[in-house]
Amino acid sequence: MTLSCWRRFGATVILKKSGKKTKAVLPHSYYFHSGFIGAGICIFTKGEIIDTVIHRYSLNGYAHKVQHGDWFGGKCIGLCVVDYAGLRFNVYATHLHAQYSVVNDEYCSHRVTQAFETAQFIRATRHTADVCVLAGDLNLEPTHVGYKLISCHGLLKDAWLEKENKSDGQDSGFTCDTMHNTYSSGNSPVRIDHIMYSSRPTVSVRCLDVTMPLDTIPGHHMSYSDHEAVLAVLNISLSDSISNDSSFSTEERISSLQEASLILEEGMRKVQRNRYYFGGLCVVLALLMILTVDLTFPYGTQSLMVAVRIGLAAALGYSFWMAVVESRKEIVSMRGARAGMRVAKESALRAIKMNDRNWQNNGI
């Protein structure tokens, strides 16, 4: 089980308040420490956790957007390597940057970068695993580029789409802003919480069912969370033959990488515009400070002006930091992600050419 808690306190409460009940079913747990207030990622498992890895995303929003809080959370992806029933499971948990506006999504490039890093992280760590499972609030709908990156480039199946039980009355699969959730209005329900999985060729995984098992807290007209819990039932078995899974399209992978690269290109242009904005703000604030150096103020207003100049100095320092340091860091992170996308796309194109060549040789 993966769980999102804003702070470690949330996971501690679960273990202490219902410790015996939780440990009887899920005796092992791990909380991933990250950021100022915590990324809120923890994993509870039935099998023994034998290793852990955490990767903090290179882009995590903005510090001056205090009302959003993503920067302070330090969004990351965590991995627990779990030994259970003779198999090795890679269990990944993450929580990507939120989308605060559909019309003006200022964090789109950040979320795409995080999605690409998620896919890359899974690709780089899956080799020793029999089964890989990714679960969490991705803040991505199935039509979003970030979702396609994780699915197509990360070679992961969406449990909701793969489930065999199609008649459970939950055809929409919406997990956020649903009608029956007490924290939301239900005006714009979306499916942004996902469980995805993959396996090595000698292991067969079938998704029997996916449900939203939690309604309201017993005795209270209150939902457990503003997001619905998602439960997937997977049937895992060893296979005598090596399966060749053809559900992942190389063309779709290339298309998603191209779309993501274009989004990051636009994101870099936006950062450059913000850089000019903060640079101009530095000039204005510096001039205001210079103009107020030799001014004489009426008696009783000196303390006020000192406070004003301290505020100007703080604003100048922060604007300089944003223009010189943060903007540079943001551009470098997007440039690095685009370089990785280019390598992945070229590798996929080479694979297509090789397959075409083999097909032609076999045809001859």
Quaternary form: single chain
Helix content: 40-55%
Output mean pLDDT. 88
What is the straight-line distance between the termini?
Answer: 52 Å
| Helix/strand order, N-terminal first | EHHEEEHEEHEHEHEEEHH
* Coarse morphology: globular
Largest sheet: 6 strands, mixed
Please tell me how large the radius of gyration is. 24 Å
Strand content: 15-25%
Count of β-strands: 11
Structural class: alpha+beta
Low-confidence stretches: none
Main β-sheet, spatial strand arrangement? 4-5-6-7-9-8
Total of DSSP H or I helical runs spanning 4+ residues:
8
How would you describe this structure in keywords?
single chain, 364 residues, alpha+beta, 6-stranded mixed sheet, 3-stranded antiparallel sheet, 8 helices, 11 strands, 43% helix, globular
Task: Explain what you see.
- With 364 residues, the chain is of the alpha+beta class.
- The strands form 3 sheets. It has a 6-stranded mixed β-sheet. A 3-stranded antiparallel β-sheet has the order 1-3-2, with no helix packed on it.
- The protein contains 8 helices and 11 strands.
- The mean pLDDT is 88.
- It starts with a strand and ends with a helix.
